[in-house]
Design goal:
CATH superfamily of the largest domain: NAD(P)-binding Rossmann-like Domain
Strand order of the largest sheet: 8-7-6-9-10-11-12
Strand content: 15-25%
Structural class: alpha/beta
Mean pLDDT: 96
Radius of gyration: 22 Å
Helix content: 25-40%
Largest sheet: 7 strands, parallel
Number of helices: 12
Number of strands: 12
Order of helices and strands: EHEHEHEHEHHEHEHEHEHEHEEH
Length: about 325
């Protein structure tokens, strides 16, 4: 019987969100509810598995791990792209990789979470929650968003949704990305500005760029120096887009009013990490795409892909 590992099932819901009966009839399914360090811990835990199922990029699968999984024949991934999976190593080993479909709520989860973080930051919701539990009452004041300026780093599918919601709040919206044109921005009611101007103008900066060589460390000390002392920055994209040392320094010096982040250089964030100690920083554990709607589709597609592989006719093959 084949053995299948469902990885990083933090919520312990994988086996209840989809019908696995077709897979269970022919394979043993084991769900891991914790992250495995790579490569050593993952290699030891997964050595006897024939297939693994990944949730996005929670666990990287580099060549160094693939080479230590002698039985591995199939990988199911959620999403159509995975920058931490070595597809060349998979091809060399003859490992089939199947991606999930495009159905489901798509790009709504992340912008909704971004707005939750924006509102929680500017109105000090997490801080006031802690104060309330300590017996205090009304210890902070925050601004309204009406009439303020939202600066979007990135105006793709998620950025455009952010702009739509900003207009409901009565905000002005400016945007920048390396390839954004004034015409493309204007087509969705947004003004294109250069990068420095965005940081000078924005009352809230929200990041919606793909992580790559051009965006790595894109926001650093120079950008924080341009921001208003009353401004906030929110990152629901990828942690390394912001220089962490520069963020910590800007927050400690009250160079900006605050920040909210959902993504980190290291995930899961270590329990003793310095970001956990910063008062004017709102944290969430990479919840952007993590909704019941998305995960139901993820696991249904994973079950479908695994069944097709067991049938000898794999579907939705990922290009190498």
């Amino acid at each position: 019987m084949q053995r299948i590992a469902l990885l990083d099932d933090y919520h312990r819901l994988a086996l209840s969100l989809a019908d696995w009966s077709s897979v269970r009839a022919r394979a043993e399914i084991v769900a891991f509810d914790h992250n495995l360090s790579v490569p050593d811990q993952a290699a030891a835990a997964l050595a006897d598995f024939d297939a693994i199922a990944l949730i996005r990029e929670r666990m990287p699968v580099p060549r160094a791990l693939i080479e230590r999984l002698p039985r591995l024949k199939f990988i199911a991934v959620t999403g159509k792209h995975n920058r931490t999976l070595d597809l060349d190593a998979c091809a060399e080993r003859g490992i089939t990789v199947s991606h999930s479909s495009d159905r489901g709520p798509g790009a709504n989860g992340t912008p909704e979470l971004a707005w939750a973080l924006i509102l929680a930051s500017v109105r000090h919701v997490a801080f006031e929650d802690r104060a309330m539990r300590a017996g205090k009452w009304q210890t902070t004041l925050g601004p309204v968003l009406f009439g303020k300026t939202l600066g979007l780093l990135g105006l793709g599918k998620i950025g455009r949704r952010m702009a739509e919601i900003a207009r409901v709040f009565g905000m002005n919206v400016v945007a920048w990305s390396p390839n954004l044109t004034a015409e493309a921005a204007a087509a969705v009611g947004v003004r294109r500005v250069d990068k420095a101007e965005l940081f000078r103008l924005a009352d809230v900066v929200s990041i919606h760029l793909v992580l790559g060589p051009r965006s790595l460390g894109l926001v650093g000390a120079a950008e924080f120096a341009l921001m208003k002392p009353t401004a906030f920055i929110v990152n629901t994209s990828r942690g390394p887009i912001i220089d962490e040392d520069a963020l910590v320094a800007a927050l400690a010096a009250r160079q900006i009013a605050g920040a909210a982040i959902d993504v980190y250089d290291i995930e899961p964030l270590p329990a003793d990490h310095r970001l956990r100690q910063i008062e004017n920083l709102t944290l969430s554990p990479h919840l952007g795409y993590c909704t019941t709607d998305n995960f139901k589709v993820f696991y249904e597609d994973t079950a479908e892909a695994l069944a097709a592989w067991l049938d000898g006719a794999p579907i939705r093959l990922m290009d190498h």
